[in-house]
Amino acid sequence: MGKACSMITGIGLAGALVGLNIYLLMEPKEQHKIKREAGEAICEMKKAARKLAELG
């Protein structure tokens, strides 16, 4: 189990680094668009979590 967890964590960190590098290579206009869309996604996840909490 320890090796699997370590491998999954390593893959996750590698993916995060690749994503960060791609983000930094984008134009500022595209970076702003991604920030806005991520903020909207976070708000939607919060709404969904509240609804689930009300049901449970």
Q: Compute the number of helices.
A: 2
| Average residue pLDDT | 93
User: How far apart are the termini?
Assistant: 31 Å
Q: Outline the biggest β-sheet.
A: none
Order of helix and strand elements from N to C terminus: HH
Strand content: under 5%
Basic shape = flat
Radius of gyration: 16 Å
What secondary-structure arrangement, pairings included, does this model have?
Blueprint: H1 2-25, H2 28-55
Describe the structure.
The protein has 56 residues and is an all-alpha fold. The chain has two helices and no strands. It is flat and about 40 Å long. The model has no long low-confidence stretch (mean pLDDT 93).
Structure, briefly:
The chain is mainly alpha-helical. Helices cover 93% and strands 0% of the residues.
Summary keywords:
membrane, transmembrane, 2 helices, 56 residues, transmembrane helix, mainly alpha
